[in-house]
């Protein structure tokens, strides 16, 4: 796969992780309206942990990949850290408020 395609897919994954992390509660309510059998707790769990998993998987992908230069790895590590840590903490806070 071309490096441009990999970078675009990684950026799309980061964007999806950001959107899932910020709008997890709204997505949960939407899923509950569309699929009434899905409980609200299951929906918030699904969206929260999918967001966190996307941040972590993109970070590990670049750390473990041998095809990328250290500049690309460092760039994605910084982006994942600056976006992922605050958004994941916010998502986990919302998740803990829902569960408690």
What does this structure look like?
The chain is an all-alpha fold and 100 residues long. The protein has one domain. The protein has helices at residues 3-22, 24-34, 40-64, 70-99. Helix 2 (24-34) packs across helix 3. The longest helix is centred in the C-terminal third of the chain and has 30 residues, at 70-99. The model has no long low-confidence stretch (mean pLDDT 85).
Give the termini distance in whole angstroms.
Answer: 44 Å
Q: Please tell me the total number of domains.
A: 1
| Class of secondary structure makeup | mainly alpha
* DSSP helical segment count: 4
Radius of gyration: 15 Å
Strand content: under 5%
pLDDT below 50 for ≥5 consecutive residues: which ranges? none
Series of H and E elements = HHHH
| Overall pLDDT score | 85
- Strand count, sense and closure of the main sheet? none
- Can you count the beta strands? 0
CA-based shape: elongated
In which range does the helix fraction lie? Answer: over 70%
Write a compact overview of the structure shown.
This protein has 100 residues and is an all-alpha fold.
Q: How is this fold's topology laid out?
A:
Elements: H1 3-22, H2 24-34, H3 40-64, H4 70-99
Helix pairs in contact: 1-3, 1-4, 2-3, 3-4
